[in-house]
Input
Amino acid sequence: MSDRARSFGAMAEAYEQFRPGYPVELFDVVMAYAGRPVRSALEIGAGTGKATRVFAQQGVAVTATEPDQAMLDKLREHVPAGVRTVRAAFEDLRPGEEYGLVYAAAALHWTAPEGRWARMAALLEPGGVFASFGGPIQLADPAVKEAVRAARAPFLESDEIPPPDGTPPECEMQWPGTELQRSEWFTDVQQHVIERRLTLSAREYVGQLSTISAYLVLPPVERKQTFDQIVRVLPRTVEIAADVTVHLARRRHER
Output
């Protein structure tokens, strides 16, 4: 795993406090695609359980996997008692039990690309559903967005993670849908967008930035200077675009 992938554990409390959760509409989108009851799910890179709650609270038996112990401890404080938790990275999981749904919430880009889809398929029952969802949290006001970019620029050019396969943002199908379309293991690839706008205080917005890997890997002094500069250009409240892009695919019954 990269340094950015390992950077979250120290901010588990802030991650739980400042990262937005997921709307129940996400569950509806995944279940509508499945077209049948989904009784068991495996979550990859569960973090503090933001997505775990959405599925577990709707009666799905979720096994939540997460490699960082601090994140897993925080998850256990907030998810229903029936959730099974396993400390493991995706690459450490071994075929055994098959699930009706395997999903990753803003975590798939941290997994190793080599053999990713063969490993994913091995965790799913034939016809089972894979889902990946997430998306950047962006300032909705272009003027505020530019002011923050300029304030951040001396320390950090960009705080986004580019698509692992280099898919340009103007393409209709985005990653990981692009990879899924090329995979021999999956079919019926779909992309859905759940539009969402949130209003945050300046403190909440900077708190959310403090959980983003691009800032977490900065030297502590530079990180503080970056946040100080950003706070100076923020209004008291900001509107953010927090759309959730959902990619769905079905494991082939036969390869």
Summary: The first strand starts at residue 40 and ends at 44. Residues 220-233 form the longest helix (14 residues). The beta strands are 40-44, 61-65, 84-86, 99-105, 124-134, 138-139, 186-194, 197-201, 237-241, 244-251.
